[in-house]
Specification:
Two copies of one chain form a homodimer. Chain A has 182 residues and is mostly helical. The first copy, chain A, contains eight helices and three strands. In chain A, strand 2 and strand 3 form a beta hairpin. The structure holds a DNA duplex (28 and 28 nucleotides).
DNA sequence: CCGCTCATGTAACTGGTTACATGATTTA
DNA sequence: TAAATCATGTAACCAGTTACATGAGCGG
């Protein structure tokens, strides 16, 4: 049996796999550069995590010096690749398919607390933000080559598609909630 | 200025508002009955949380006895309603609109680690799960009255629309990744 | 040489989890 | 009367956060 890894651990294993070999610092940069703010990639999260994976035999470290400056290069082990594979699936995929958390959806649920004008404001603001998000995601889609790197492309496509669906939903909400004067 | 509440706190305030007056136990049931497994509604989360909100003046408690059995009835205060409103928005809505975390999307990003057959399996499984999810969500939509309770209706619509978008996306991924023999 | 980025690291905290414990009341 | 549900509560734990600290190397 392979060791069970958390979401962040799986994700880090994936990043190391993608980059073949990388420093914890580089891993942090990936999180910090990501449009998804769910994980901050804080030092306090990443450094202990890679050491944990290393001591579990999923990663292998190598020290590297440029002058006096030390850095740690991590690489996937065979066991690490196994763990990454079993994290991805397909065994666990029924869990990963569950309805994702969405702060926007959560707020719409309680939109009844707001007075009508603020509700309208909320919906307009959300619509605007989503349009920005769609624009960015679709721009990224166009910049990627679906044949060369289908996975990055699909990632961007996913973001774009979800954003479009959320936009359509917010528009439906506006239709339903905002009083129109005839 | 109104006190800043966390996601779970805002959600609990919303639930108390929805139910007008309720026990922590009832709040837990809401989470446990929810199709979204993000919060477990564990006792260790809810009881300390409502006490925190109470001592912050956002909730008011009243004890209630049926025979020997004690229960605590919580109710929103004026301050609590304020806090709930400012949690919902629209001020914070640009944060709440950010790309939601999605374990499925995360896994698709690293789908390259799987061998082709497992990848196909993964996609087929995800597609199946999403179909189930859509069926359930759309059933709930039909059972709700958009005029009478537009917020619950919109919640269900949101789940259904997102699930449909994810399905379309997974099908696009299948199209792109699964070798078809001509 | 000053400030930025590279790079590693830790301490205190927080917001949740699981797992347990207790006891009253209701239902089969 | 046994089992399920109602109802409150705590202790140990865990993963990730903010905030800090240190220091090397590089570009203007």
């Amino acid at each position: 049996m392979t060791s069970k890894v958390t979401e962040l651990e799986g994700c880090v294993l994936g990043i190391v796999w993608e980059m073949d070999s990388c420093t914890p610092y580089a891993i942090r940069k990936v999180f910090q550069g990501s449009p998804n703010p769910h994980w901050s990639g804080s030092a306090g999260a990443i450094y202990p995590l890679v050491r944990r994976l290393e001591s579990g035999g999923l990663l292998r470290v190598r020290e590297d010096y440029t002058g006096q400056r030390r850095r740690e290069l991590y690489k996937l082990t065979a066991k690490g690749l196994c763990a990454l594979r079993s994290w991805v699936g397909p065994e666990v995929s029924d869990w990963s398919v569950t309805i994702p958390v969405d702060p926007l959806r959560l707020r719409v649920r309680f939109l009844g607390v707001l007075q009508s004008s603020r509700r309208t404001e909320f919906l307009a603001h959300a619509e605007h933000q989503l349009l920005v998000q769609i624009k960015e995601a679709e721009k990224e889609c166009r910049s990627l080559d679906a044949e060369k790197d289908p996975f990055s492309y699909l990632l961007a496509r996913g973001v774009a598609k979800i954003a479009r669906a959320r936009l359509a939903w917010i528009r439906e909400a506006t239709e339903l909630l905002v009083e129109r004067r005839p």
